[in-house]
What we know:
This protein is of the alpha+beta class. It contains 15 helices and 43 strands.
Amino acid sequence: MATVVLFLSLIFAFLLSISPPSSAQQQPLNTISSFNFSNSPWRPNQNQILLSPNSIFAAGFRSQPSSPELYTFSVWYHNVSEETIVWSATGNSWVNGSAALVITASGQLRLNFSGRNLWPQNASGNPNSTRLSLRSDGNLIYSNWQSFNFPTDTILPNQNINGSGITSKNGKYSFSNATDLLFNSTDSYWEAYKGNAFQNLNDSGTLVQANGGSFVTADLGDSRWRRLTLDDDGNLRIYSYDPDQRLWVVVWKAIQEICRIYGTCGPNAICISDGQNSSTSCVCPPGFKVTLGGAKEKGCEIKIPIKVPKNTKFLRLDYVNYTSGVNYTIGVNAKNLKSCEASCYNNTKCLGFGFKYDGLGYCVLRLERLIYGYWSPGTETAMFLRVDKSETDETNFIGMTNLLETTCPVNISLPLPPEESKTTRRNIAIVCILFALELISGVGFFWGFVKKYIKYRDMAQTLGLEFLPAGGPKRFTFAELKAATNDFSNLIGKGGFGDVYKGELSDHRVVAVKCLKNVAGGDPEFWAEVTIIARMHHLNLVRLWGFCAEKGKRILVYEYVPNGSLDKYIFQRGRGNFTESDEMEMDPVSENGQNPILDWSVRYRIALGVARAIAYLHEECLEWVLHCDIKPENILLGDDFCPKISDFGLAKLRKKEDMVSMSRMRGTRGYMAPEWVKTEPITSKADVYSFGMVLLEIVTGTRNFEMQGSTKNSEEWYFPGWAFEKVFKEIKVEDILDRRIKHSYDSRAHFGLVDRMVKTAMWCLQDRPEMRPSMGKVAKMLEGTVEITEPRKPTIFFLGDD
Ligand SMILES: *[C@@H]1O[C@H](CO)[C@@H](O)[C@H](O)[C@H]1NC(C)=O
Ligand SMILES: *[C@@H]1O[C@H](CO)[C@@H](O)[C@H](O)[C@H]1NC(C)=O
Ligand SMILES: *[C@@H]1O[C@H](CO)[C@@H](O)[C@H](O)[C@H]1NC(C)=O
Ligand SMILES: *[C@@H]1O[C@H](CO)[C@@H](O)[C@H](O)[C@H]1NC(C)=O
Ligand SMILES: *[C@@H]1O[C@H](CO)[C@@H](O)[C@H](O)[C@H]1NC(C)=O
Ligand SMILES: *[C@@H]1O[C@H](CO)[C@@H](O)[C@H](O)[C@H]1NC(C)=O
Ligand SMILES: *[C@@H]1O[C@H](CO)[C@@H](O)[C@H](O)[C@H]1NC(C)=O
Ligand SMILES: *[C@@H]1O[C@H](CO)[C@@H](O)[C@H](O)[C@H]1NC(C)=O
Ligand SMILES: *[C@@H]1O[C@H](CO)[C@@H](O)[C@H](O)[C@H]1NC(C)=O
Ligand SMILES: *[C@@H]1O[C@H](CO)[C@@H](O)[C@H](O)[C@H]1NC(C)=O
Ligand SMILES: *[C@@H]1O[C@H](CO)[C@@H](O)[C@H](O)[C@H]1NC(C)=O
Ligand SMILES: *[C@@H]1O[C@H](CO)[C@@H](O)[C@H](O)[C@H]1NC(C)=O
């Protein structure tokens, strides 16, 4: 369908381009600064706009791009290359050329159309003096009436969100009471933390909530044009206008995984998203087919209706979750899979159940209906669908081992060629089954075929089954990289994984070229890992553009991040040990021409960005990836000090022993979780520990193994324990703050940020892995969207061997 539309619109665009430009476009634009009784009426074809004093916003009749004879009376961002409507008088409906905006003799502002007034509510003033004007903040004003009280799908900075709430342009989704995102006016798929209503978005990029809580945008602090919009896909996003790229960029969104939004697919269907560009597709589970006569969004129906409930079996779909609504869901405390299955089997209304292999007995029965299904590794759940015994379909949602492992080098350590080829065979088999199923059910209709092909290509990508090399990272030749780096002459870093050189590709992209040492495994494994790394996209991860595997060399080609690594900014160079008497006040802008000293809000943004990226690696991307070497050297700073994590995914290429000895050698012992030196399994919580240490360093501006304070050189001294004593026992937060910017610590403005960073760090640094929060939780703790309870003191567990 989409292809047809695209095709038709291409033809249309072509026809338009050869026909003479329409007369409306040729008329000179008539700009007014206010609209009053003597200007009335204002008709759509007048080509007139009302401009705000700062020229950023404009109001007027805008025609619909696809049918230019239809209009809305709107307010839009005018002074941007991507003009964006932020308000419409008629919401989702359109008027034609016969409409008019009038101020009547009695002073009422009306949008006349077909004998009715479509202006939202009664706007009245004095006809002799009242004017319609547009303020510089985008608020359209007429007497006591203001457009900020009647938002459509967008909230502008400093506009109160309370009141009537906003609705997506297509009318499917609403943000109700400024707390709940609703599908179909009733089903809530997202709620502001603790039901605390949003109040407004302020100029610096903070979304203020009623209780003083807040969400912050990725570009917090920058003065940019922003807007909070409920998009047609049901996600609530904050966009920020990037004047350099000249486009709107998403700097915050309520929902990370788009398939968790209700109503994307119809009943029984499963929503799958390609994490990269937030496109989604809907697929039918095994045993189901597309509802007859329906579009793919309409949903699926069972192929063999269940007549005898006892004559059924269950198909397991890994990582799939459905809802049935509160009245159709039963939570069972099941001992194991068998007993969970039995309770569903016994219930004639039960259509399936969700089960977690975590030994904690998560078992949820879904009765009567299956809606809002989606696939996501984050669910860690398998869905068991009830089908007739005679059903021959086999499950195509596989990939979960019975015990979920968060893998680091320990578990998947080394070459596994048999495994590798097995998965490839499996992957190909899945794709083949999908194709076969589809071809059988939807025979030979050309457009249908194309549509399905695209659908399954998307799904295959999502499931990580991409076998088309075109989608993978670029393979460079050694000669190419040699030329790009000028024979590896510009060494910019020496990391644990190898040396890094700066270079420039033939297309003038500046790159960082990392020559790996001691890489385990052969070519296929390297290729497989690199493909996985290249598939990870996040604002706060360094992009991998390509690689080279030639003559035993293993080289990765990354985007070049200009500002260097975090350690250069937070630690004082060449001044390792200093004592408390060594009080120095330094110019925060530059320290002997060195790097600028980062202020609190920049530090906070860095911490948050890093936390989000690690959470993405752990929880959201399609493979579980542990970083295993988080430290300030691996956090690079891009434009505007946007943090970018490097070296992620590389841990998989190494052995545990290697990691431990390497880290000791390089003196990064200080970042390693206790379990590295015990014989315990390494889980994602090891990264949480390392992050906690980095977080504490960001606050203190001191290396954790470089002593600060009088207890230095003591065997008993443990940095997190020391910080805990200062902050929570002695209540002297100032004592641990980076003394270079201590003086700029305005406790009112920064207390919240610093307090959250310190408390979160304490939780991350707990000795026992299970005491530490997950990285997703850590990000929320930093954001302030979950409550942080009082941490326990991080205890001393292990004193280095030096
Ligand atoms: C209405 O606006 C016009 C300019 O658009 C101005 O000349 C006129 O004085 C205004 N009338 C009133 C009553 O403000
Ligand atoms: C926005 O307005 C300013 C000042 O009026 C102007 O210099 C700039 O070019 C405008 N930008 C766009 C995108 O129109
Ligand atoms: C505008 O729409 C109205 C009814 O909605 C119709 O009566 C009228 O003819 C239309 N006018 C134009 C110019 O299309
Ligand atoms: C708008 O509607 C009002 C009330 O029906 C009428 O008095 C007025 O003449 C109309 N104005 C225009 C320009 O259509
Ligand atoms: C609109 O409000 C004004 C005063 O606020 C009132 O006089 C008028 O009758 C109202 N008109 C309608 C149609 O409600
Ligand atoms: C508008 O001005 C006229 C004369 O200039 C006056 O008669 C009329 O009462 C005024 N209308 C209002 C609502 O003040
Ligand atoms: C919205 O909240 C502001 C304060 O934040 C208050 O002044 C205003 O009256 C509220 N508006 C509505 C419609 O509730
Ligand atoms: C919104 O608030 C109203 C009144 O406070 C309440 O009845 C309604 O349930 C709320 N809606 C949601 C989705 O929370
Ligand atoms: C929306 O809700 C109504 C009843 O409230 C229901 O009849 C309708 O099927 C729902 N639509 C969707 C798409 O779920
Ligand atoms: C659940 O059932 C109760 C009682 O039958 C009813 O009042 C309530 O509206 C139902 N809730 C939903 C979401 O259907
Ligand atoms: C299922 O039903 C059978 C008999 O109808 C009963 O013996 C059994 O205990 C039930 N199992 C569960 C889990 O309810
Ligand atoms: C499955 O989806 C429901 C409804 O969205 C949600 O409440 C539940 O937490 C999800 N289960 C898992 C394991 O994610």
